[in-house]
Write a structure and sequence with these properties.
- The complex is a heterodimer of chains A (about 400) and B (about 450).
- Chain A has about 400 residues and is α+β, with helices and mostly antiparallel strands.
- Chain A folds into two domains: about 180 residues, PmbA/TldD superfamily (PmbA/TldD fold, 2-Layer Sandwich); about 230 residues, no CATH class.
- Chain A is about 20% helix and about 40% strand.
- In chain A, strands 1, 2, 3, 4, 5, 6 and 7 form a seven-stranded mixed sheet that branches.
- In chain A, strand 2 and strand 3 form a beta hairpin.
- In chain A, helix 2 runs parallel beside helix 3.
- The mean pLDDT of chain A is about 95.
- By secondary structure, chain B is α+β, with helices and mostly antiparallel strands.
- Chain B folds into two domains: about 200 residues, PmbA/TldD fold (2-Layer Sandwich), CATH 3.30.2290; about 230 residues, no CATH class.
- In chain B, strands 1, 2, 3, 4, 5, 6 and 7 form a seven-stranded mixed sheet that branches. A six-stranded mixed sheet of chain B has the order 12-11-10-15-24-21.
- In chain B, strand 2 and strand 3 form a beta hairpin.
- The model of chain B has no long low-confidence stretch (mean pLDDT about 95).
- The chains are: A alpha+beta (about 400), B alpha+beta (about 450).
- The interface between A and B is large, with 62 and 68 residues.
- Strand 2 of chain A pairs parallel with strand 3 of chain B.
Chain lengths: ~400, ~450
């Protein structure tokens, strides 16, 4: 019998903002610990919140072997790696002072708008170690800004949202961005009169709406069972030569642990799923890789006390250009800021309602566009309609990457 | 129980949850799990700011109260502050589910109930399927510095089959789910499951892409419930109005906001997924008309929003777990039944769309519904199945375009998913409504 400890500590300190003032302060400290035991192709798991006794947990985990949860794989062995990202050192007291000053400047400088929601310090420590020499620790401390903005005269619940994760908090970075955003919001712009228009998505936010079907189709389970749009298309060039798509556990860029729930990580924390338009492999965990005889990519997640299961931990799109301006080549684009409710048909046709977007020239937001409907098919979006992905985005520090697709855009 | 600091309002919510989950992949066991967790959420209010703490260390809740109190500025007359005045002092033990505690049912019984449905999944076109069983029994204790001390409970159990059909380039992902407070209600779904699977097979084989455009749309009770929740329910949550004079002016009670045949209600006392005896600041839940015959009649409140708007709390301050503060949320939200029969409502449509099941919805100034199974409607009859990505409409324009409402209302409860607001997802809510005919929506 082998034994493994999986532990996630999440601490946060947040201020909730209402009408550009601090309305509440919240501290959270949650420790989740589980012991996994592996025996004769079965896995037993017992978890607890807060204080724990590892020996007691191990006994209880062994007792859950009676459920006969299958896990016919060897636990990952003999790897030691600790990553500590501690660039963000601001204390909670400094954080409170910075936020008070930030909100005061916001109230004074952007008078026509009110801001709400929250600003947080997030700390996480994830440990996965076992008696076969696996010893992985990922620690990170980040800052998260998440603001909802609203014109004071507006009768909408919200007019827009703005946020980013980073490892630095300086109000002098955020203030000009918000000033530019609100300035552009106040100016109405018209949609360029072109049949297809470049559309800029922030990959990890609104971009996920456009990437959803691709991520679903790249899943090893749907691929292997023949229910994926990519089933039977391995090693074929099905997308644009410029389009490369990676599974990522890069702790710096993807803001995630560098290892998956089974203790797997890849060279450079990346695994190519699509390379230069060629579909290489779906993402897999140990179970899916074994079931369909696929390469193991290390794509498993789990609750602290759950059996690892297949899911894509993080993504990265291969960079094609340095800036969005380089991609646009002088054309104007739609910069998607807020989209909700879109979906794909089973055949991969997307319709995405965009509630807030801006006309964008690759350097600055020019003005607010009316509500839009964006449509495309997955094989065109990342095929002939894929224009590129830029190294430098609009937002600071956040390592948010920006992809540009040429899509059919119309008013709602 | 706790020593509450002077000059401050304090409340503590302790949650104890016992849950079980089971999942099977293609008929084979994937995972069975039982879990018991405990946690507490502590709030301290000094009349200006709230101070919150969430902990799993129940032995040291007092330490958290004392630490939060150090951040706060005590006030002599804290009980006279309007928000604090609104907090009721309810007491007593209200364990409505204890006698049928779902967590006490053996895993063998739960698995056997689930396995009885497995043979239905053996079908030519189903290439992949997975089923989840989920249940939880939650006991909450809420006590406050004003003297509230309540113990109440909630439970829910259910299953969800997710299946994928595939043939050549044709694909369909669908699900069948059932949920109830009573485990026995989860049995006996054989006929409904078989009927639904046949419907999905027909859809899978025959659905054709819709021609995008504007159509008259009939929404099923599923879809109309989501429409009510997304299009108007969220706008009725009064925390969006805090400190916002433009919103207060716009959302004046008595204003006409929709077609006069429309009434939307939120009711936390109904025995569906959104049920709660009390909300998470100790207020009894109740029935609130949001729209009555087209007129804005009420809104959903926490004590804070009720105090600011000089109205009464409605029992809608809810949190998804001990890790979060209560915010204004819906419970069971539905469109009230009208007068027409379903057949009479369909007969009004010569050329339109029927949205039967949906994947998800959203609602801001524009609402969206992503249909799963939809059909054309020709001369009042259901026609060929249609593939639709999304149906959209301007919320207020659509509310005024509601033409007919059928006379039978149906409520839906969910075992997976729920309502999301800011970072709090998923919250147990119920949705429902009758069949609803809308004059025009944008269909893509």
């Amino acid at each position: 019998m082998n034994r493994e400890l999986y532990q996630i500590r999440s601490r946060s300190f947040s201020v909730k903002i209402l009408q550009t003032k601090i309305a509440s302060v919240k501290e959270k400290d949650v420790l989740r610990t589980a012991v996994r035991v592996y025996d004769k192709g079965l896995i037993g798991i017992k978890g607890v919140l807060g204080h724990y006794d590892e020996e007691d947990l191990a006994k209880k985990a062994a007792a859950t072997l009676k459920y006969r949860n299958p896990y016919p794989f060897k636990p990952t062995a003999g790897v030691k790696k600790h990553i500590l990202i501690d660039e963000f050192k601001m204390s909670t007291e400094e954080f409170m002072e910075e936020n008070e000053a930030f909100l005061k400047e916001l109230r004074n400088s952007i008078k026509g708008f009110s801001f709400s929601h929250k600003i947080s310090i997030l700390e996480s420590r994830t440990v996965l170690k076992n008696d076969l020499g696996l010893d992985l620790i990922n620690e990170d401390r980040t800052f998260a800004l998440s603001l909802i903005f609203k014109e004071k005269s507006s009768v909408n619940i919200i007019d827009g949202g703005f946020g980013y994760a980073a490892r630095k908090w300086d109000r002098n970075d955020a203030l000009p961005l918000l000033d530019g955003l609100c300035g552009a919001y106040a100016k109405k712009a018209a949609l360029p009169k072109e049949e297809r228009i470049p559309v800029v998505f922030i990959e990890h936010y609104e971009g996920m709406d456009a990437l959803f079907k691709l991520v679903e189709s790249l899943g090893g389970m749907s691929y292997g069972s023949g229910t994926s749009l990519l089933s039977g298309k391995e090693s074929r060039k099905v997308f644009n030569e410029k389009f490369s798509f990676y599974q990522s556990t890069d702790p710096v860029k993807a803001y995630t642990e560098f290892f998956d729930a089974e203790g797997i990580f890849n060279k450079g924390f990346l695994y190519p799923l699509i390379e230069k338009g060629v579909f290489k492999t779906p993402y897999t965990d140990k179970f899916t890789a074994d079931l369909y005889k696929l390469p193991l990519t290390g794509a498993s997640v789990s609750h602290y006390d759950g059996k690892p299961t297949l899911a894509l931990p993080g993504i990265e799109i291969g960079r094609t250009h340095r800036t969005i301006k380089d991609i646009l080549g002088g054309r104007k684009a739609v910069y998607v800021m807020m989209s909700a409710g879109g979906d794909f048909t089973p055949q991969g046709d997307m319709s995405l309602p965009v509630q807030l977007s801006f006309l964008y020239d690759g350097e600055k937001l020019i003005g607010r566009l009316p509500q839009l409907q964006i449509s495309g098919n997955i094989f065109d979006m990342f095929g002939g309609d894929f224009m590129g992905a830029a190294e430098e985005g609009v937002l600071p520090y956040a390592m948010l990457d920006n992809m540009v697709l040429s899509l059919k855009v119309s008013g709602i | 129980m706790f020593k509450f600091p002077k000059g401050l309002y304090t409340d503590v919510r302790i949650e104890k949850t016992a849950s079980a989950t089971a999942s099977y992949l293609l008929g084979k066991l994937d995972e069975i799990k039982e879990r018991e967790i405990e946690g507490a959420f502590i709030r301290v209010f000094d009349g200006e700011r709230w101070y919150y703490s969430s902990t799993t260390d129940l032995d040291h809740v007092q330490k958290h109260i004392d630490r939060l109190a150090k951040f706060a500025k005590p006030k002599k007359d804290i009980d006279k502050i309007p928000v604090v005045e609104k907090f009721p002092v309810n007491t007593g033990i209200h364990l409505n589910f204890k006698k049928k505690d779902i967590s006490k049912i053996s895993l063998n019984k739960k698995s056997a109930m689930l396995k009885a449905y497995f043979p239905f999944m053996k079908r030519e076109h189903i290439k992949y399927w997975r089923v989840y069983y989920i249940d939880s029994y939650i006991e909450k204790r809420f006590c406050s510095s004003k003297g509230a001390d309540i113990v109440h409970d909630f439970q829910k159990g259910g299953f969800c089959f997710i299946f994928q059909m595939a043939r050549n380039e044709r694909l369909l992902t669908e699900k069948y789910q059932a949920s109830s407070h009573d485990f026995e209600d989860l049995r006996g779904h054989e006929v409904r499951l078989e009927h639904y699977l046949k419907k999905c097979e027909e859809f899978f084989k025959n659905a054709v892409p819709v021609k995008p455009g504007k159509y008259r749309v009939i929404m099923s009770p599923d879809a109309s419930g989501v429409f009510a929740h997304e299009s108007f329910g969220h706008k009725s949550e009064a925390d969006f109005m805090l400190g916002d004079e433009a919103m207060k002016k716009e959302w004046t009670i008595g204003k006409k906001v929709s077609s006069s045949i429309l009434s939307i209600i939120d009711d936390g006392t109904l025995n569906y997924s959104g049920y709660a005896a009390f909300d998470d600041e100790g207020v009894k839940t109740g029935k609130t008309f949001l729209i009555k015959n087209g007129i804005l009649t009420g809104r959903l409140h926490s004590c804070e929003t009720a105090a600011e708007l000089e109205e009464e709390p409605t029992g809608n301050a809810r949190a998804i777990s001990y890790e979060f503060e209560p915010i204004v949320r819906m419970t069971n939200t539905y469109i009230a039944a009208g007068k027409l029969s379903k057949a009479a409502l369909f007969s009004k449509v010569k050329d339109g769309i029927f949205v039967e099941t949906i994947k998800h919805g959203s609602g801001m100034s524009t609402f969206t519904i992503a249909p799963s199974i939809s059909y054309e409607v020709k001369n009042g009859k259901i026609g060929k199945p249609l593939l639709i990505s999304v149906v959209t409409g301007d919320v207020f324009k659509t509310l005024s375009l509601i033409e007919s409402v059928s006379k039978k209302m149906e409520m839906m409860s969910f075992v997976m998913g729920g309502c999301g607001k800011m970072e709090q997802y998923p919250l147990n809510v119920g949705i429902g409504g009758p069949f609803v005919l809308i004059k025009e929506l944008n269909v893509q």
